[in-house]
Design brief:
Layout lengths: L1 E6 L1 H18 L6 E5 L4 H18 L6 H4 E3 L31 E9 L3 H13 L4 E9 L11 E5 L7 E5 L1 H4 L4 E6 L3
Parallel strand pairs: 2-3, 2-4, 4-5, 5-6
Antiparallel strand pairs: 1-8, 7-8
Length: 187
């Protein structure tokens, strides 16, 4: 495999700060915003976005408490490819105490590709509650959608070939350092 790094730690930090500002702008603040990270790498990204939202809100004299507004959403049993791939380990769903009813839920994931993961997340949300709206924040949008789903907040658009693999590596999950790489199949 030929590998090339397309985002480094600073790039990822800047992208997440930009997304946090966009979330605040799109929602006129953080009052009813809940972040739900999709395992695996969406969870630490949601936590980082929560920390960014808290810092920005504090500068504006407002409050955003990541402990009560950031959670995780397991989509394992909602996937439409369970028959084709081995069952993956499920992760606990953790919904903030205030719930998601009548709130703006921002789904957070690392890479948006076909849209099927997000479709599964929408199904999972409908079993938990009824938010006023659902938005999507992704670190990388690589294209190749199979479903009519688009991200509201994107860190980086990385058009790619279907034969390429985009990997997000985060300190919390992978150790090492934050980075995004594109792996090309060798010719």
């Amino acid at each position: 495999m030929v590998e090339r790094e397309v985002l480094q730690p600073g790039d990822i930090s800047r992208a997440l700060m930009r997304i946090a500002h966009q979330i605040i702008e799109a929602n006129q603040g953080t009052e009813d915003v809940v972040l739900l990270g999709i395992p695996t790498r969406g969870v630490p990204l949601a936590e980082r976005l929560g920390a960014n939202l808290r810092a920005i809100a504090a500068l504006e004299g407002e409050e955003f408490d990541p402990v009560s507004a950031v959670g995780t959403l397991d989509i394992t049993m909602y996937r439409d490819d369970l028959r084709r791939r081995p069952l993956t380990e499920s992760h606990p769903t953790s919904i903030p105490l205030a719930g998601i009813d009548n709130r703006t839920v921002v789904l957070v994931d690392d890479v948006l590709y076909s849209g099927r993961t997000i479709r599964a997340a929408l199904d999972a949300i409908s079993d938990i509650g009824r938010p006023s709206r659902v938005q999507l924040a992704v670190l990388v949008d690589r294209g190749h959608r199979e479903l009519p789903i688009r991200a509201d907040f994107v860190g980086k658009n990385l058009p790619s070939a279907r034969s390429e693999r985009i990997s997000v590596e985060l300190v919390e999950i992978d150790g090492g350092q934050d980075r995004v790489v594109i792996q090309d199949a060798e010719e």
